[in-house]
Amino acid sequence: MLDGNEATTKTVPMPWNRLGLDDRFTFRCGRELDCFTHCCRDVTIVLTPYDILRLKHSLHLSSQEFLDRYTLSPRFAGQKFPLVILKMDEQTKQCPFVSAEGCAVYRDRPWSCRMYPLGTAEPKNPTPEEQAFHFVVLEELCHGHREENCWSVRDWISSQGVEEFEMMGASFKYLTLHDYWDQSPELTPAQAEMFYMACYDLDRFRRFIFETRFLELLEVDEARIEAIRAHDEDLLEFAVEWLRFSLFRERTMKVRRNAVVEAEA
Ligand code: SF4
Ligand code: SF4
């Protein structure tokens, strides 16, 4: 459910196709449409760490409260790392944030709600022949496709504030597309729990850093310590570096010299 209110002049046929940033599609969303909020029902919305960060701030909840109240973390066969999805209401199947006025968390709605009705397909290792592309998700329930407003993909993405989510999601994307997952078995329960905490349960991850020996064992400069103490955005970047260090053995962090000596003694 998105506000699409900028009309332009040129239109393109609507069949499913690959769209580049300058290709165009027709769409309009608004509360006067008879499908208003129908798209916010019985839908699987996978939340990124940055989606969770924005939603918990919007709702003035801790990460743990938000996760407990509004999400599920299902496990599928062959799933490599924990995922978090938005929990629909058990009876109505509606998203918990649907209100009479529309989306109650509109300013902080998740990435996938912003993108709709566009989808994205992205090869893991893009080549000149095989690049990321967008496509229009055509669903019977959505009548916005019958409207005549015409958008370029680029303008749609910009109008919905997607860039910030993509920028903040880049390091998590790196984590999830890493070659490690191709070679490794599933995470151990302890690793899965660390992944879940670091990516999704940021307030608990902050306590893990500041209330254990973490900072005695790893070198983190003072400015960074203050940044991750004060800002969830910095903490999230740090969390991804920690997972790259602890899971992938990348040199994103440095063990303190005296911690190595202690371990060897
Ligand atoms: S978060 Fe908002 S836009 Fe997304 S499904 Fe829920 S009500 Fe709809
Ligand atoms: S179903 Fe489509 S047009 Fe209707 S509210 Fe949702 S996104 Fe907008």
Description:
The longest helix has 17 residues, at 232-248. Helices cover 41% and strands 10% of the residues. The protein has a two-stranded antiparallel ribbon. It has a two-stranded antiparallel sheet with strand order 2-3. A two-stranded antiparallel sheet has the order 4-5. Helix 1 crosses helix 2. With 265 residues, it is mainly alpha-helical. The structure holds iron/sulfur cluster (2 copies). One iron/sulfur cluster binds at residues 1, 40, 45, 95, 97-98, 103, 105, 109-110, 113.
The averaged pLDDT comes out at 90
In spatial order, strands of the major sheet run 1-8
Beginning-to-end CA distance, first to last residue: 60 Å
Bound molecules: iron/sulfur cluster
Q: SSE string, helix = H, strand = E?
A: EHHEEEEHEEEHHHHHHEHHEH
Helix content: 40-55%
Given helix and strand content, the structural type is: mainly alpha
Cα shape? globular
